[in-house]
Input
Amino acid sequence: MATRQTMTAGRVLVAPSVLLLFAWMLAPLARTLYFSTLHYNLIDGSAPSFLGFQNYIDFLSDPNFIDSLVNTLVLVISVLLISVVGGIFVALLMDQDVVGLNVLRLMVIAPFFVMPTVSALVWKNLLMNPESGFFLWITKSLHLPAPVWFTNWPMLSVILIVSWEWLPFASLILLTSLQSLDLEQKEAAELDGAGAIPYFFYIVLPHMARAITVVILIETIFLLGVFAEILVTTNGGPGDATTNITFLVYKEALLDFDVGGASAGGIVAVVIANIAAIFLMRVIGKNLEA
Output
């Protein structure tokens, strides 16, 4: 058991890295807060002038903000559903004793280590290409209408790409939880005559609850900042069909050259992310303390 002296020594030793981390985080945040109160546009050539909260009012009253907020929620919720449900299914498959299981696990986790930009380009040019994509070949083989993914179903296309990236992460975490299940519980369920479905819902799923909570918590924080997949596939379109809050801030900064408005949008995005994190920690995170 740690004594008061060892705990104090530990805090002293950790303090420099914590202070460095805070400086690394707070310095750009403070700079962004400063720019968010200015009229600072790189095109008009005028000197920066103080506006107060006007950039926040303009950003929040922009009609594109509501659309981007809805797109963000749709993207996050859809990817969470696909990755968690699909992750449970994949984890159950990988938990079986089959030949080449180690190779199978390596193949499942491999997409998680591919850069989002590369993964999105592979999906766009090799799988969803409307002229030579793999999905086009499948539909032609089945004599079905050829889908134009990024034109007809832009948000669905982005959701599939992002889900493919996060499914391996969820599968690995859930598989780790599944393999920690006590075999005596399974043997007791078999002796009591429990079938596969009751065994899954009453034993396996409750056992994986904490791992599912971790997956939801981590994925939500990262999914709120999805950007690269949208940039290289739909560029936020058609129109604003796939523009989330992160991409809206990008358009304010690098397309409209409005540093002040983009800074205000960045602060709004940080506030939304923190609200989501606090909500998850208080509501869903209670499972971690159980």
About this structure: Residues 74-289 form a domain with the MetI-like fold fold (CATH 1.10.3720.10). The longest strand covers residues 38-39. The two ends are 23 Å apart (CA to CA).
